[in-house]
Amino acid sequence: MKLKRITKNKKIILIAIISILLLIVISFSVTKNIIKSNKEKTKAEELSKFYWETMLFTVNDDYTYTFTCLVTIQELEGIETIKYCQEDGKEITVNGNGKQKIGLDFKALENKDYKFKIKPVGKSEKTEILNAKRKVSGADTYKLVNGVYVNTPFLENFNSKYTRYLTAKDENTLNPSNWIFDEEPQNWYDYNNQKWANVYVEAEGVEAYYVWVPRYVYKLDQSTQRSDVKFVDVYNNYTDAKTGEVTKYKELVEQGYQLPEAFEFGDGNPDNGLLMTSISGYWISKYQLSELTQFNINYNMTASKSSIVLSNYTNNVSGKASSYTFSINGKIVNTSTTLEEYTFTNLTENESYIVNLTALDANGAIVGSMTKTLEPTEVNPPKLDGFDPDTTFYVYYDEDGTEHNEIPISKEAPQSWYNYTYSNWANIVTRNDGLETYYVWIPRYQYKLNQTSQRSDVKFILGTSNTTETGYQIPEAFWWDKNDDGKEDDGEQLTGYWITKYQLSREEKEARITAELAPSSDCIHVKDITGTLITEAKTNSTNIKYEYYLNGELKHEGTSDTENYTFGGLNLNTTYTVNIIAKNASTNAYIGAITKKVTTKVANEPDLTSFMSNEGLKSRTYYVVYEGENIKEFIPITEAKPDNWYDYSQSKWANIVVTDGNINGNNIENATSTSYFVWVPRYQYKILSQVNDWANRSTDNARTDVKFLSGTDNNIDAGYQIPEAFWWDKNDNGQEDDGEQLTGYWMSKYQLSN
Questions:
Q1: pTM attached to this predicted model
Q2: I want to staple 190 with a disulfide (CB 3.0 to 4.6 A). Which of 100, 195, 306, 310 is the partner?
């Protein structure tokens, strides 16, 4: 039998691991007690305790383990008796004599339950169980490989994205092979001929080499001063490859062999009974890790839905490198003697890809490597509240880069709107009577400046988390100090923000693109598409097509800017969004757009009361009916109103004439007094050139947007106003009284003359 101390003579790394685990145990124990205290409202000193720790372990003749433990029992009321069975099965009773704490030396065979019956003073007897376990890692890995029994390499703890096999060309040269998620290369290792298993780990230019050390026992040959090594299984048994004979651990110990302490270590967590771990082997770093001052090789990686492009290389090993390999998902797809832009094609959208560029010397050994992973990126989705859903549009692009922006955000977003995996950021555009503003969504992120490349490494953050990785920080822009108190309050952290893509500039002297929109009770008429963008396109002999949208639905396509198109079949007193997009007819490239909200309303009918109530005027007043720009006929107002008298949706206004002359067809004869009047229905208006109130604007660009109002309605849209002419202060008191608001008024068309 062999006696070992668990708590001494361990390597520094094992002591560190045990210390960390002990800290975790302590932390867990404290947390557990706090929770229990909160729930049961019990003071800490009132708790009873049963805990134990191992001091020594013994390897038995049957290769099981016996652990020597210190068992501690604590009771606030004091301990009356403790009963337990030792290895021989005899029950032992310990009189506590009312002591609050008692420690017992105890030997426990591994993986066996031992009951401790504890009788506190004045309380019922209770039972605690001790079970000492040993974890065996790699129990089925001991195999015959290349003429020797050995524990095969354990690769599960390596990241398969960044780890690949290394094969030995000779004693001094290791050549890269497949990634470890792929097939193991032939003759990867041969421990019978001192050819050990090696792997290469590289991520973002940081590399490490590891070699596998299988479990073994050794004996020092005093005559040669060399160690005799035998590879053993996790139970320390040795199998002779030639004869198949098994030598038990007991015999090996008697022959003078011993097991290195690195293959067995304590977990330090008796709460779960795991006292010790026996491992099949371990990986050890071949070279000392050093601080990276520069990447041996690097590249920029850009991606689309179906390809990944490598370009803009940094090569600090050009004097050593003889060839370069390009790999994706662990497969070498290209080898070159020079570094030129390379494209991985025929890829699947939203799939994860591992991309690698490796520089090799003349012997095929690695002199530089860079592995990057393209993974579907999850970001905080764009927030669209606050934007007008009818005049704000998704901006998305074809594979060829053609811009599209016809879908309002009131509708479902197009599938290709954004994909941050491929640097395709979310874009929108807002439109207001020919003015456009583009925005891009910046999701919450953390960043770190790479001192080597002088570039920022960015990682997106979900929600409003302030947790960052080591060396990373969150830009201040994601904190909106809404009450300006310098303190971070609830709700002030942002999931992201919109930023304008282009610098805002002074409004053009003429509209970039506009059109006349005239509503009626059941339709909206579109006339005369104009603007600087249209002029420029025509100057460059560009054929233009026009797309007419109503509430986001394509209704018509045309090729003429003078086409008088009508959206028909509409509802009265309903607001519609009209969007007209101009595109290059040959390339489908976006030129410009005009977006307006239009309400189908009937202009207030002309009020003829004043004329009809005055007998002198009544007989001398006539409807004036136009045909084009010319007068067609005069009809007395005492007769029925003609159907074609006016149509404000077609800019055909209501006209009358008051004359003492004689009517002859479309002529007035022998008149001494004639006055023409036009009916101006109640309306609201906005001077478009004053929307941004530019300091040095020119007044000759003033364009007025007019919307008719029903009755004496004073409810106006934002930015609009009602002319003062619709208020008649009949008592001249400077105050608006009932009945003073007008539905419209008659205005003289021409200067009065004799």
A1: 0.62
A2: 195
